[in-house]
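Run: sequence + NAP -> complex structure.
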Amino acid sequence: MGILEVLLQSLDRRVIIDAMDLDNDLSHLRRRDLLALTAALAGSLLLRPGGALAQTSGGAPARIGMIGSGRLGGTVGALWVKAGHPVMFSSRDPEQTAALVAKLGPLARAGSVAEAIDFGDVVFLAVPYAAMPEIGRDYGARLAGKVVLDAGNAVESRDGAIAAEAEQNGIGVTSQKYLPGARLVRAFNTLGFTILEREAGRAEPRLAIPIAGDDAAAVQIAASLVRDAGFEPVVVGKLADARRFQRGTAGYGQVVSASELRKTLSLAP
Ligand SMILES: NC(=O)c1ccc[n+]([C@@H]2O[C@H](COP(=O)([O-])OP(=O)(O)OC[C@H]3O[C@@H](n4cnc5c(N)ncnc54)[C@H](OP(=O)(O)O)[C@@H]3O)[C@@H](O)[C@H]2O)c1
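>> structure
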């Protein structure tokens, strides 16, 4: 997408700026010019109706709120802090996140789940899947309009009946049912946190992270955040297509490059 199209679409208020494409299109500009352009446009053109401007991959840092700061949330959040994003880690028990935040330095902070949602331009959801109905009930209104990256897997032995629902209807569609207003993108669900920790930012080819969502601008933001964490995004399709990389399918657990994953999933190279 060219810069003119970005501006026209922004004028139309249908999308926020596509940070990834903007990066590519404006790579010939000096970073200072780009920042000035962004600042000049931010007030009137690029703010979403909700007011949040999320930029990633070389743009202004995105504020990220973590719901779930355990093994997966703690790992991915730390990678984003390392990439320069301010991250708020939440727990229902503030003691749980204190050590993590102290270790990560000034870009990391701790808060309640509600505070993390309000803090984030983007919210990362890394909770046992059984918690989805409760999260939807307690925080659905707060999450409405937010870009939400959902990494949960439904495991029957841990999560109970909701696993059958995710199996039958597809996990992306199921997550959206519980978080109806969120700009949901499935991401980071396929690889274990130890692999993510170890392989982030490895030499090319980087490991693939499949993503899927119905909101094109949210998918682009997720793709940029995948890159910032040190991986290569593979856009698999809409939320309904997220079943192609949910637990138990061919796209799940693939410790492979983007081109290999595209081949496995018969996606265009
Ligand atoms: N572990 C992995 O390598 C991995 C990889 C890919 C995907 N996943 C998926 O990611 C999700 C999290 O896995 P994990 O291994 O990171 O789990 P974990 O280490 O047990 O951490 C779970 C986190 O979720 C929070 N949480 C639980 N119930 C909650 C609720 N009702 N409301 C708000 N927060 C709640 C917990 O916060 P409190 O401190 O408040 O209890 C904790 O921070 C699961 O769906 C899992 O399938 C995990």
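>> summary
Confidence is low (pLDDT under 50) at residues 1-53. Residues 6 and 17 are 6 Å apart (CA to CA).
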